[in-house]
Design a protein that fits this description.
Elements lengths: L1 E2 L4 E8 L6 H10 L12 E7 L3 E3 L2 E3 L1 E8 L7 H7 L4 E7 L3 H5 L1 H11 L4 E7 L7 H13 L4 E3 L8 H11 L1
Parallel strand pairs: 1-5, 2-6, 2-7, 7-8, 8-9
Antiparallel strand pairs: 3-6, 4-5
Length: 173
């Protein structure tokens, strides 16, 4: 088995509206912690996470994710599209308890794909630990079908499927 010469860096973005839990998902995945206090991300916060090595055929690869947690997006501007540049994939996050954040996803995904047409996507319904309308999951699934993207329900608070979400995106890169 041959080894690659060190980790392969891949830039990924977390995109979604304000307060859907993007920063909390990154905190849970990178540092395994959750804070109840709400912090608004201003601009972009970049984190690194080295993933466990994976074997592809006879080659062992290791990815280092360069995670760009982009401030909540209500309107897309030139700065946002600059942040998107060079991304291999995105976790597209909605808040299951606020269906308006799901309705906003197609526009966000379209903007992201205009910059990175080949990028992989995983759609997340976050805050799965809170009560939410069953149709929220259906809505998410139909958005995911448009882009042939997997959909996962996550909870940054409990950690439910957070690691799985990032690993799923890494597999698709």
């Amino acid at each position: 088995m041959s080894h690659t010469s060190g980790p392969i860096q891949k830039k990924i973005c977390l995109i979604g509206q304000f307060a859907v839990g993007k920063t909390s998902l990154v905190e849970r995945f990178v540092y395994n912690r959750f804070g109840d206090q709400y912090l608004t991300t201003v601009g972009v916060k970049v984190s690194l996470k080295l993933l466990p090595p994976i074997t592809e055929g006879k080659v062992m690869k290791q990815y280092q994710l360069v995670i760009w947690d982009i401030a909540g997006i209500d309107a897309l501007d030139a700065m946002t599209t600059t942040y998107f540049r060079g991304a291999a994939g995105a976790l597209v996050v909605a808040d299951l308890t606020r269906t308006a954040t799901i309705t906003a996803l197609p526009e966000l995904i379209t903007s992201f794909h205009q910059v990175n047409p080949e990028a992989a996507l995983v759609i997340l319904g976050n805050k799965q630990d809170l009560p939410y309308a069953p149709e929220a999951h259906q809505q998410l699934k139909s958005v995911a079908q448009q882009w042939q993207a997997p959909v996962l329900l996550t909870s940054a608070k409990t950690g439910f499927q957070v690691e799985k979400a990032f690993m799923k995106l890494a597999e698709l890169l």
